[in-house]
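writing this on my phone so excuse typos. first protein, seq and then structure
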Amino acid sequence: MNMSDLQIKLVPLIIAVAVLTSFLLVGLLHKVRDSSEYGLGGRTTGRIGGGAAIASNWMSAASFLGMAGFFYLNGYLALACVIGWTGGYVLLLVLLAGQIRRFGKYTAPDFVGERYDSPTARLISALISITISVIYCAAQFKGIGILFAWLFGLPYHTAVTAGAIAVISYVVFAGSLGVMKNQKMQYTVLIISFILPLMFLAKKLGYFWVLPQFGYGAALSQVSQEFRTNFTLPFASSSLFQWSALCFTLMVGTAGLPHVLSRFYIVPNIRDARWSVVWGLFFIALIYWSAPAYAVFARLLEVKNGAIPDPGAARGMADMVVITAATQGGLPAWLVGILAAGGLSAAFSTVAGLLMTGAASCSHDIYAGLLHPNASEFRKMRVAKGFTLVLALAVYLIAVNPPGLIVEITAVAFALAGNTIFPAFLLGIWWGRANRQGIITGMLLGVLITFSAPLLGSFLPLVAEVFPLTSSALCGAPLVILVTILVSLLTPPPPERIRRFLAEEVHGHLD
């Protein structure tokens, strides 16, 4: 390793460590000691702050690292991610945001258990929420692992272990209110660290740098001519069904993701809950407009340097293409360090929200809700932190040998949410006749559909085609909704008090 390599790694390392240390210090200063707020951070955030927290919680390694890598590999197919993830927030805003906040239950299992008057439905929802958190976290751990490997010059397995220790220490010792305050701080760091290097890169390559989200269009044309790959050609790497299935799955998965739904309880009222979604969508869009530019610049630099990788090598490096573009583009070490710090910030922020959402489900919905209703706050808090460690260990075991790209792993979590949690919320809010028998059947069917491709696809190829692992909700979610409706109609209706509550309290307000 020569001295320039040491300089490139050392300066980014110092910047990344400084940023993460500041996050930990802020978290320790605002530590939560009440288990009821462990997964929420308290209702102390306004509209813009709530939007920043939503965006920070959302801006994961999939957005910061994986999105550009997915564009780098697949071009037009990756547009399904942008439309699906942002469209999901529009769906959430129109159909669920105000109603969820008005219903008054803090977690997805809480809502399901109360709305459907069923401890069994609550338990199933809690287990699904935990599974979603684990799968989603596995993608973040991979992002942390590859960044730690690059920063410290470590093998991936060693790096993901070090990264896991760092992020678990942050979550356990900082507490949830610290996480919420950090999420506002982290979004600020994230947006600067993602866009500022992009501006410098665009300027260095000779393109319009003031708004590089528009300036990379000329580079796109150049790549199409020299690389003979048209990123804008529809369905060049996928079919119309595959594109639509991925887009729809990410859309309904966004609207059903537990750690996103819980953000509606950190704002003071329903109107602020809606506006926090609007602000969150705006903040998220700033990143999504920028990710394709990194992918295009990375391809352009490969052409200019005469180092075009084969498909296997390209897939292997896709999740690091943001860092690769910055280093190959000749950006100064301090800018690369800011970019790496942003990537770690994105992954740490999402892992914090996900692990605490999963731990809250374990502690609040399972331990206190079903096993020990009279448990003290101190006991529930200890259980929540203990479950955080257990979930983190499960995530680590998956991340040591990741099954796919960051975006692909993340998409499985969205598919599970779209096939289970989304139908439960949609029907639970908008159809008073939905009952416990229907939703239990629907959620179990949704789990089966989500994992049907690896379970049944080898001897039933049609199943794998109709319900692909990363995008099964296009056919799966409507099927779950239909089965839930049929079972509900064939079984007794829910209690009258629940139907009256929906009519009078959830839908009976104009705000």
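second protein below, same order as before
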Amino acid sequence: MNRSVFLLFMHKCTLGDRFEELLILFFQGCTRAIGCKLLAITILRPKVAGGRILSKVRRETRSPALQSVAVAGLFYPRFASEPGHAQVAWIPFLAFLLLGLPCVAKADPKQPAGTEGDPVHWSFQKVVRHEPSEVQEKAWVANPIDAFILSRLERAGLRPTPPADRITLLRRVTFDLTGLPPTPEEEERFLHDDSPEAYPSLVERLLGSHQYGERWAQHWLDLTRFAESNGYEIDADRPHAWRYRDYVIRSLNDNKPFDRFVTEQIAGDLLPRDPDPIRQADRLIATGFNRCGPIHLVAGNVDKDEVRYELLTEMNGAIGSVFLGLTLSCARCHDHKFDPVSQADYFRLQAFFAATEPSEIDLATPEEKAAYTKRTNELKKTMEPLRQQIRELEAPYQNRLTEQKRAALEKRFVEALAVEAKLRTPPQKELAAQAEILLKVSWDELVDSLSLADRARRAELRAKVHALELQQPVPPPEAWAVKEVSPIPPTHILKRGNLAQKKERVEPAFPRILNVNLPGAAAVKSDSREAGPGDSPPARLTRVELAQWLTARGNPLTARVIVNRLWQHHFGRGLVATPNDFGKRGAAPTHPELLDWLASELVEAGWSLKHVHRLMVLSNTYRQGSRLRPDARARMLDPNNQLLSRMNRRRRDGEGLRDCVLSVTGTLNQRIGGPSVRIPLEPEVYDLIFTEGEPDNLWPVTLDANEHNRRSLYLMAKRNVRLPLFEAFDQPDRLTSCPVRPVSTYAPQALILLNGPFLQKESQVLAVRLMRECGQDADRQIERAYRLALVRPPTASERATAREFLAGQSELLRDRMRARLRIPLVNHTPDGIDPAEAAALADFCLALFNCNEFLYVD
């Protein structure tokens, strides 16, 4: 097969230097598309008019099998009088001449998208541990992070911002590490500790608290798309998925080395069995990572191969986005347009998961199973009489509706049903099956036909059944995990990602641009690993080798990606602003030497995430104030604060906002782990739950009301059901990996904070707390409210404004009561409290929850 010759004719064009730049870019794209490699571009500018050749571009094919050369020339009959411009009569613009030589029109599965000679993108280069440059203000440097930051600031002619005050710093580091505000008692203790170790001791206490794992697990679950339902229209529940969430929390709290954390999630089921049953269960549960993405399971006809392919696509994409920070999914249908990842690389990586299937692995003891069976049988015996009453009540209506439908059937359906089932011909069997569907009575038809009395009676009986269903015990423990199957299904490159168009078969291997040596082993080749003549077949790579490769010292991405994520959540923006894209289309690092230093430090410290946290929050860079200085120099030279001459102010996310409100009111239930909690839903949210049956008890609310005040991390994470507060404050959809939550500002946020049922209720709870702790003393109530909500005492003007508001609002509410108008009454107030004063205090608490200082962390 020969290449065709492409000619583009242009007439009477005025061309210049910009055209040459565009030509080069265009030529690079064209040569890449047909499998050629750019060796050189030479622009020849003849000094004499009438010169013919303006530029000559030499190309050599990237494949050794295609030893051919492509040449393109621009032929100019004459030059214009202006330098650098030409009047062109005609241009044979592009000609690829591959005549009489063998040509491979399809992608070679053994070749990467990038080739030798191409410039290597920074993120694919080896991590180098740089030493920080010398700085002038040496006294400001608390650790190497400061030296790297200060060096850039000094080169730009900027200075760091003075440190934040102690209250701001306390509030900042407590929220960053735990997601909660400090208590007034913690504030008092910190402010009265003048020792140099006060702040480091605070950091150690926060890193050692269980709230640390809960806060940082939320960031990790955003990346993994974790949810407790499948997604799509049916959105079926995943009853054991919560154990993966708890695994992440435990691992972070235990400071599990990140390399082991990665390995257990990718291949925990393939590791040697641990003699400790708890650790072994953890390894199995960890593999739930591979199942976190949505999966399209419906009740109708399902193509099993398509479902499996979707699952493999989710697994493969997670490796790229979560661990490598690459958009590998862009290579699913073709070679990556920007990064040196070929389509063959994509499917070789997917081949690691070819034998991987979802599995629920039994973890229960015989005693747990026996207890569950006993309790379930007891509830069934209690429910059965109620269900029997429902069936008896429905039977007459059901029979009447069925007979009405039967009378309306066409003759052919009636005749088919009249024949005994075992005697029906194939056409009669098909007609009978269709007739059964036509005769089926739906729940809404049945309910509509009931009398008012029977409808009420039926609703009462169903409510009793549902109340008993809520008492069902937690199912015996299972690991929501994966397993290996045999024989291993083959993996093929798919033309345009279409499962029906299979091309070459490939075996598990690593992307060539990232091929590194495994520690203590020979180099792992990243081709199909074919055996030579007389050789035994090579061992197939497994997910264990994939995990080892990801965490190998030579892998340039894994450590860089995770330290960048930690930096992002502490400083508001990653050193690389695109945390899931370290490729050519991603942002360049603002401090590349610092990024590499942090990555190498993580590895040298045994992959300890807490070690990196400690370095970051103890740095003077982190301790800076966030206020803009009056001079405009920093604003002009670094408008987006990429050089970090001050700290970035950040808004709480929806989950953090809810948790802080519950903490301030004193009602936060800090129990760790366990099955997820279902809190009451607003009717319009409940209506989002899909069902083909009767829409009652679709969201069985957790019976224990105290559980409703658990941290937001423990609320049921159903993909199609998001709480209004979370949705308004940019909770991700859990369909794709979310490395950075957007921060939007729009009207519904203010409406939810002022009028939403959660904030209305919790402002009353805080008012009751203030009345119980401070009595009816308005000044004490104001002081305590500010210390609880804002972690500081009120200023004199704030105190005066608050007193004026409480007095005026109380009088206004009394006037409404005298006029017999409704006011929001506060429940559970101490004896002797004026209802108007209690309601005014609740309004004051609501105002505090709505102020910017509560919503933002300086």
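DSSP finds 30 helices and eleven strands in the chain. thats all i got for now
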